[in-house]
Amino acid sequence: MVTVEIEGEKISLESLLADFKEIREMQKQTEKLIKESSETQKKEFGELRRETEQLFREIGEKQKETDRQIQETAQRQQETDRQIQETGKQMKETGKQMKETDKRLGLYDNRYGQMLEYMVQPNLIKGFQKFGFVVTKAYKDTRITDPSHKTIAEIDFTLEDGNKVILVEIKSKFTTEDVSRHIERVAIVKNHASQRGDTRSYLGAIGGLIINNNERDFALKTGFYVIQPSGETFDITAPMSPREG
């Protein structure tokens, strides 16, 4: 047996070769494990990298879709704003046209009412004479003012018969609201007259070119005389109980 002495210890060459062979084998195993581990890590890293790249691609696609939706939303908002502005312009123009129409209708109604008054006036006194009135004075467009000269009532026609005064309101087409306002008007004039020592009775009359049955009946029930067209002239209908102020 061949022996060698290493640091004072005798070791056989066969034992030394066996240890070297074992170490070499362990080294090979270690290198194999390292290689396998490296390949596994490389494979896992590659898979992770591919998954990460796929994730970023998906995020990129989603971001593109989000950007597209944001852009579409912005475009729709712009279109909505444009429509709102256009609608606002149309409403403004419509309002302007309505004001102009109301103005024209108002002028038309005033002119028509004036024309109607001139048609009624010649037959007004004669018409009330049929009911026993002896009209001694007649006024057109009477304005009643308070002590501060503020207008408190305007009367189309005022007829005086001794101790009675008839206040006449003429409309192209009167409504129940017109009748109610004339009731207030007669009361205002009566109160104004009373403050000045006038004790006469004040009666109301209302007329129009177009009169519906409901408005006509309402006016008669309130005690007003009703003046309405009849052929080329006008007729006056008396209430069952004239309303005296």
Features of the shown structure:
3 helices, two-stranded antiparallel ribbon, rod-shaped, Trna Endonuclease, Chain: A, domain 1, six-stranded mixed β-sheet, alpha/beta
Account of the protein in words:
This protein is an alpha/beta fold. It has a domain at 117-237: Trna Endonuclease, Chain: A, domain 1. Helix content is 60%, strand content 24%. A hairpin with a 2-residue loop joins strand 1 (3-6) and strand 2 (9-12). The model has no long low-confidence stretch (mean pLDDT 81).
CATH topology of the domain at 117-237: Trna Endonuclease, Chain: A, domain 1
N-to-C CA distance: 159 Å
| Tally of individual helices | 3
Report helical residue fraction: 55-70%
CATH architectural grouping of the domain at 117-237: 3-Layer(aba) Sandwich
Largest sheet: 6 strands, mixed
Order of helices and strands: EEHEEEHEHEE
What is the global morphology? rod-shaped
Strand content: 15-25%
**Overall strand count:** 8
Query: Which stretches are low in confidence, meaning pLDDT under 50 for 5 or more residues running?
Result: none
**Average pLDDT figure:** 81
Q: Just give the CATH class of the domain at 117-237.
A: Alpha Beta
In which order are the strands of the major sheet placed?
3-4-5-6-7-8
Compute the gyration radius: what is it?
Answer: 55 Å
